[in-house]
Amino acid sequence: MIVAGALLFAAQSTSRGLAAETSVPYALQIPSSGIQIDKIDFTNDGTYPTIWYECISFTNLGPRPATWVLFDFSWVQPGDADENDEFDLASATAPNAGGTGTFAPGVQTGLVRGRAIGFCRMVLREWNGAKPTASLVTFVAAVQYQDGTSWYLLPTIDGMALNPQGAPARIVTVKSSGSSEPRECATIENTANKPIQHVRITFRHSGLDGSVLSDDALDVRAAIPSGSVVKNNCRNYSGVLVPGLRAYADAQLQGTAPPVPQIKYKNQISTLSAFVDEVDFADETKWQPSSP
User: Fold this and answer.
1) Which residue among 72, 116, 201, 266 is least crowded, i.e. fewest CB within 10 A of its CB?
2) What H or E segment, with its residue span, contains residue 197?
3) Confidence band (pLDDT; 50, 70, 90) for 132?
4) Per residue in 1-55, pLDDT tens?
5) How many domains does the chain have?
6) For residue 52, what pLDDT is reported?
7) C-beta atoms surrounding 3 within 10 Å
8) What's the burial of 64, exposed, middle or buried (CB within 10 Å: 0-12/13-18/19+)?
């Protein structure tokens, strides 16, 4: 779908075999991401007719080196819902990035002799000899930078910190980010007068009626001095944030207000909270609450 006012380009296909019959891939360029998609190829090497590759080349427009980029590949069928797949280039070392494990500003990554073959994901597609009508649309969903900052297309969802009375460590913030593979993260602070070596965080998903859908523990094992704060204590969870990423890409390109995200967990709209339920100190003493 071409969005009015959007920066959108067609990436020329260099695929072999049936790839010549596919629709031309499109990139939705989202300036706020700082990543420019240079080329997309949907290719089949002729060995197995049902195994295809979605490949991408991109440039970090800077000014900071990036360490992780997440792309969304959507097969858009006229009249049907988007078929979304997130493609994670986590801690990738690009051949032309100096072997540093970062995507340097101004350096084009993943383009080899005019083909986008540097970063690919395998998909199983059976066209049965027929010309597909679906179009492949790609955009950036998230970026993490070497300096610890990040950019997300999807807004984060703030959860609630449940701090038990007398706990020697407290939850400062609780957030959920991501789409089809979301992550829940908590920031913790050592409020005791001695160092901590282990904190167990429980992330709780509750239904809108207050019922507990799930409690999931995350063990943080680190030397945490008194008064110190530890950020980015994260875990993946099997939920989904709604609406999908494409709705946020369209809102960015149209300049409209983005929709309010919600967490769908076990087929229910849910809320997120977190609390500390175990602390081990460096002197080998322990704290546990009587209840959350």
Assistant:
1) 266
2) strand 196-207
3) low
4) 212 122 333 333 333 223 333 455 778 898 889 999 988 887 776 676 677 777 8
5) 2
6) 74
7) 14
8) middle
Instruction: Read off the tokens for 274.
Output: 């977190």
Question: Cβ contacts of residue 209 below 8 Å, gap of 6+?
Answer: none
H helices, E strands: number in the chain: 1, 23
Beta-carbon count within 10 A of 179 CB:
23
Alpha carbons within 13 angstroms on the beta-carbon side of residue 252 total: 20
What pLDDT is stored for residue 261 in this prediction? 85
- pLDDT tens column, 178-190: 766 788 999 999 9
Residues 6+ apart with CB under 8 A from 5: 253, 254, 255
Strands 66-76 and 212-224: unpaired
Structure tokens at 201: 């965080």
Strand-pairing partners, residue 174, are: 186
- The answer to whether 215 and 278 are in contact (CB under 8 A) is no
Please provide the size of the chain in residues.
292
Q: Which residues pair with 205 in a beta bridge?
A: 214, 272
Label residue 170 exposed, middle or buried (CB < 10 Å: 0-12, 13-18, 19+): middle
Query: Tens digit of pLDDT for each residue in 69-103?
Result: 888 887 766 555 455 555 544 433 334 444 457 88
Domain-located, residue 2: no
At 195, list the tokens. Answer: 């160092």
pTM (whole model) above 0.85: no
- For tokens 């695929």, what's the residue? 15
Same domain, 178 and 83: no
Where residue 124 falls among pLDDT bands split at 50, 70, 90?
A: low
270 and 213 in one domain?
Answer: yes
As a whole number of angstroms, the distance between CA 252 and CA 151 comes to: 13
138, amino acid identity: T
